Amino acid sequence: MGDCMTFRKSLPLCEHHCPAAACNVCKRKALKPFVPSEDHECTVFAAWLELLKTQGKLEHFSHIPNETPTSPIQAARLKRLGVRRGVPDYLLIVAGRVCFVEMKRADGGRLSVQQNDWLRALRAAGARTAVCAGVTEAKAVVLNWLDGRD
After folding, report:
1. 123 in a domain, yes or no?
2. Domain count, the chain
3. pTM over 0.85
4. Residue 59 belongs to a domain with what CATH number?
5. Per-residue pLDDT tens digits for 124-144
């Protein structure tokens, strides 16, 4: 590992803390930068929404638990309860208006046909909707809604 330590510290590091692009110990390529999962993005967004609510800036919000079922039994139960695919991730009441946010990962993600259908129907019914690539974009959308901008 001594050979690896002679490289500059500004290079990407491997788990041995050596420049991964030229590591003589692990022979691995440079590590990719961390990209948060959609769950992580949603967790951060929910905490921020909670802060806005405690500050009196946001009336109500809820995550809509519409994730993929973990078993066939759970899938059948959710179907009987009326759960439908494609419903946006968050329901918010912002300045007296109903708003929906569909969260995607910051590095991408695609809308399903069902998600597009729901967003189109919600907009037609007068709701504000947004598809956000990560928590930073979601925060910007909500701040615009709080300022009265669509």
Report:
1. yes
2. 1
3. no
4. 3.40.1350.10
5. 999 999 999 999 999 999 999
